[in-house]
Amino acid sequence: MEFPSLLLCLQILLPSLVFLTLILAKKRSAKLPPGPRRIPLLGNMHNMISGEAPHRALHKLSQKFGPVMHLQLGEVSVAVISSPEAAKQVMKTHDIHFASRSPIIVAEIISYGCTSITFSPYGEYWRQLRKITTLELLSMKRVQSFRWLREKVFVGLARKFAASGSEVNFSKQFNAATFSLISRAALGDGTKQVESLHPMINELAELSAGFDIADVFPSIKLFQWMSRLRKRVLVIHKDIDRILEEVIHQHRTAKNDEHHEDILDVLLEYQRDGLDFSLAKDNVKSVIVDMLAGGSETSGTTVEWAMAELLKNPGILEKAQEEVRRVFGEEGTIEESRIQECKYLKLVVKETLRMHPALPLTLPRKCRETTEVDGYVIPENSRVIVNAWAINRDPNYWKDANTFQPERFLDNLVDFKGNNFEYLPFGSGRRICPGMSFGLANTEFPLALFLYHFDWKLGGGMKPEDLNMEDGFGLTARRLKQLYLVPTLTRPLPAQ
Ligand code: HEM
Description:
This protein is 50% helix and 8% strand.
């Protein structure tokens, strides 16, 4: 009897031992992704100060070290993802492990201790906030409800262009108009203080572009205390907070029935007692900052690049203009509900988002649990950067990837809703941009309007081939050089 029972034990034990040995061997062989050589203490910080825009610098490094790359920035472990296959693993297969954000000092301060949609860690609070954002703040219905505001702001800008009679700084004027639109949608049309928020939000975007020594050595409290960036951000935050306090007070005291509902109105409803989920005043303010920071420069930059690409490519400009003028010829201006008919214009926007994603490195995620990607280990708490700019130009997926060709999307069903990992202008997975519809509406309407009513030339008599198409150094892929254009009104603007 003894022999068969020993055999039975072996039969059970042996496979388990083999399985265990395999797992242990796999664990032992699991290694960090490759990356450039580090120097003591600083790690790879020297690799990030090449003077190039971070998405380009990281792209160059990834061509040498691979689509899953590891960098050590001071104390912070960073994984850089640069291929559609690896992005799919991060944003789909293991999305839940990467669904948190990795906040930096600027973000922590301006988001009232990471309580905004963008910076709150993955968990119940973020899920509730995200639900309110998708279903109420940025729903399709809400986006359409701001149609009157888009018309008011962008037709107003078109009037300024028409009155100028000469060259205009398109970049500056369009970005100011987009901020005006977003801030009015968020805080109300009648609120005077909103315009003064623009330079502050702009400065915050600039400050979050670089990295601060305190961010890469979080355990050294002296660096936090010494950080000049931290001091500056605290000052700006205080000013923004004061303005938001005033606007909230006005909303509470001066309601009238004529008033168009804005995003702040909706958020204040979540301050009532007796709700399953309610928002403290600081939470409301953090979401408003999210809208102002996340919504304005992204759409503004996209339109700026679309106009630059159109003027660089006169044949494409002519085709887009012919379509818009044909579709709206009888109306005499742009009727937003019919923009769907402008199929070619939509391809132009899609191609602009491919070549110039407004957030080229999306928004850094945080690895919540050690995870294997492409056979490499991404350690828990690493910062994970998905280089959407590099992925959107991956030559394995895109023919003539560096050429602006809206037609490439004609027979290509790839879209930006987060299911095609070779095209990630809005990210993907749980943290995908909730402002996609709003961003697109704020891009397509002004483009159609400008193409319909004006003929355009480059400023300073510049030839298309001389237009500089470099992007600058920033969180958003702004143009390095501002775009100067000469608008000529060819079809009258709608009456006021
Ligand atoms: C063309 C316009 C826009 C582009 C290209 C864009 C792009 C992005 C990207 C790449 C992300 C990160 C996604 C990820 O981590 O996977 C993001 C997140 C976000 N965007 Fe947008 N965005 C645009 C417009 C807007 C607008 C208009 C709003 C609101 C007014 C907005 C609000 C947000 C918020 C709140 C998040 C954070 C979501 C979260 O962490 O859960 N975006 N956006």
